[in-house]
Specification:
The protein is α/β, with parallel strands linked by helices. It is about 60% helix and about 15% strand. It starts with about 20 loop residues before the first helix and ends in a 6-residue tail after the last helix. The N terminus is likely disordered.
Length: about 650
């Protein structure tokens, strides 16, 4: 839990932050690159539909001109209607049908594009996430990361499927109608533009306010989801220590912040539409009044059409154009708010995609090998149970080194932060088949050493060699494939028991998985499960005990059959009786392998070849059990109970 003793505070001040339009540019480029053929088709449909929706104003004016002429001359009859008015009406109906066809085609294609684009984005995010270093997940809340795949993806969906197409269509209608209005009357257009200028000023005022809060809202959602997930994972701890009220108080602060940001964002956005709509209504009334005055006063008309004076056939269509013009200006302003929110979510998604991938400059790979009695190593495609390091050299030659499990650290310094070292001049020599144990208080650096061996983190100084090869030269995937790790925290995946064991070696047969389970001492309880090895596990194996989950994790490492094993408190969650069973299996598992063991129970490390005692990142004692006992130092006092590990 975060700062359980700190008093929650929230000042409600918005961040002073400008919207980065580069985000929108990147999204558009990715969208066009993903669908280079369909996007132009959609754009054509949107533009065509917009133009077809704007053009009817011209034909409405022509119909009104015919009707006005007939009223003035008294010649309005069926022949006039049939020859002049009905064809214009037919053209209008045709235009609207064409518009409907374009809209239908556009929406169907956009539905396909949107879901496909989101699927590609999720895949890019997930694929990129798999290449991120462990440090990223150690420093970011998992709930906040999940928010990228839920809330932020949803805002991106609205941006792509609704906001951008609507904005493009409304903008085209606005421009087209503006030219039509100028065609008929400069004076009436000037009246409309004065009202539009007021609309733009209002949009800028409220749109700018909502932008800051939409950006903050997306972060607040991620923060809230991260907190909820953390509390769900720690629910037992919360109840054990009766911290329910404290957690409620902390969540109230986070929830208040989210509520405040969301309220402000939507308050600004929601007021914008009604204000602009009413400005449009007022403008409509003004246009009626001004148009009527122009008619009564016989004001000369100026327009590209060359109509000398105002007439009813100009004013009435102009009113419809005014409604259409202001309505689409309102649409543009509304979509700008949606784009702002979509860009906030897209910005977070791109930030995840822009995270630096784990650097892997290794070029030494792990290959199947055949080894002759005289030590000659050749690479082979078939599985032989023997492995070798394939080492290319600058002169084009290749050398092969048998994978034996010789791991050595020379004067290693390391710190999770650049200026704060947690390991100091650590040297460890583990020969093939040796069992090396690390003992020390919490925070002494035991787990850190194993994290360096598999290159979850890179050292600050010194060297680590694996079978004589600097591990920086070995590709990380191949390095980790040669290591079997059983962590203190057990993670099981949704699936059967068999599938969870097979996770250690995806091409393992059922018999190999069962053999590994028997070796780890897990076969006995697995066969007593309702469906044996086919029993479904979910929610990290919540239907199993902690010890049973740990046994499956050990079996998972056993089926990989690696030459080097790292056991980080592997039996910490197992009772004494089960530990004895597991220990026998572990002894078989460790035969012929290099093993690094971290354990608080000194009984589990007693038979180690070498025991390293660490204190504040330094090795203060080393030797086997008998040697360290005879020296009567720190290990002796730990073993005899003079003082205990913290």
């Amino acid at each position: 839990m975060n700062k359980m003793n700190a008093k929650p505070q929230f000042n409600g001040k918005p961040p002073k932050r400008k919207l980065d339009v580069k985000v929108l540019s990147r999204v558009l480029k990715m969208l066009i690159k993903s669908y280079p053929v369909l996007i132009p088709i959609v754009a054509f449909c949107i533009i065509s539909s917009a133009l077809v929706n704007a053009i009817p104003s011209v034909f409405t004016q022509k119909i009104m001109a015919v009707i006005t002429r007939c009223i003035e001359s008294g010649e309005l009859n069926w022949d006039v209607a049939k020859t002049e008015i009905l064809p214009l009406i037919a053209i209008l109906i045709t235009l609207y049908v064409i518009s409907l066809m374009f809209i239908t085609l556009q929406t169907q294609i956009m539905a396909y594009i949107t879901q496909g684009f989101l699927a590609k984005m999720r895949k890019k995010m997930f694929d990129g996430m798999q290449n991120l270093p462990i440090k990223y997940f150690d420093t970011h809340k998992h709930g906040d990361i999940m928010s990228y795949y839920t809330n932020d993806i949803d805002t991106l969906r609205q941006l792509v499927s609704q906001s951008l197409p609507t904005l493009l269509q409304a903008s085209i209608i606005v421009v087209t109608v503006l030219f039509i209005m100028l065609y008929y009357s400069f004076l009436m257009t000037a009246v409309v533009l004065l009202g539009v200028i007021l609309m733009i000023l209002v949009s800028k005022k409220f749109g700018g306010g909502s932008a800051k809060y939409f950006i903050r809202q997306q972060k607040s959602i991620g923060k809230a989801e991260g907190f909820v997930q953390e509390m769900m994972n720690g629910q037992k701890v919360i109840k054990v220590f009766s911290h329910e009220e404290k957690v409620k108080e902390e969540f109230s602060v986070i929830n208040e912040e989210l509520c405040h940001d969301s309220y402000k964002a939507h308050a600004y956005a929601n007021i914008l539409g009604p204000v602009i709509m009413n400005i449009g209504n007022i403008l409509y009334v003004i246009c009626i009044t001004v148009g009527g005055l122009f008619l009564v006063c016989n004001v000369p008309n100026f327009g590209l059409a060359g109509i000398p004076k105002f007439s009813i056939d100009i004013v009435i269509p102009f009113l419809n154009m005014t409604k259409q013009f202001t309505g689409n200006v309102n649409q543009v302003s509304q979509q700008i708010n949606s784009i702002i929110m979509g860009m906030a979510g897209a910005g977070r998604i791109l930030s995840l995609m822009d995270e630096k991938a784990e650097v892997d400059d290794g070029y030494v790979t792990l290959v199947n090998a055949e080894i002759t009695p005289d030590g000659t190593i050749t690479e082979t495609e078939k599985r032989t149970g023997k492995w070798a390091w394939k080492h290319p050299h600058g002169d084009g030659t290749l050398t092969y080194t048998e994978l034996k499990g010789d791991v050595r650290l020379f004067g290693v310094d390391f710190g999770y932060e650049e200026n704060k070292m947690v390991l100091h001049d650590v040297s460890v020599y583990a020969e093939p088949g040796q069992k090396v144990a690390f003992v020390g208080a919490t925070g002494a650096g035991k787990t850190t050493i194993t994290n360096l061996i598999n290159r979850f983190y890179d050292i600050a100084d010194g060297k680590i060699r694996y079978d004589g090869i600097n591990i920086n030269k070995i590709k990380k995937s191949d390095l980790r494939r040669s290591l079997g790790i059983v962590l203190q925290e057990t993670n099981l995946f949704t699936g059967t028991v068999m599938e969870n064991i097979r996770y250690g070696k995806l091409d393992a047969t059922d018999e190999e998985c069962k053999k590994a389970a028997a070796l780890a001492g897990a076969d006995d309880f697995i066969t007593r499960l309702p469906n044996g090895y086919d029993t479904m596990l979910s929610n990290n194996g919540s239907n199993l005990s902690q010890g049973q989950r740990q046994l499956i994790a050990i079996a998972r490492a056993a089926v990989a059959d690696p030459p080097v094993m790292i056991l980080d408190e592997a039996t910490s969650s197992i009772d004494t009786r089960t530990e004895a069973i597991v220990q026998r299996g572990m002894d078989k598992l460790m035969e012929g392998r290099t093993v690094f063991v971290i354990a608080h129970r000194l009984s589990t490390v007693k038979n180690s070849d070498v025991i390293m005692v660490l204190d504040h990142g330094k090795i203060i004692e080393r030797g086997n059990h008998e040697k360290l006992i005879s020296e009567k130092g720190t290990y002796y006092r730990l073993y005899t109970g003079a003082f205990e590990l913290e």
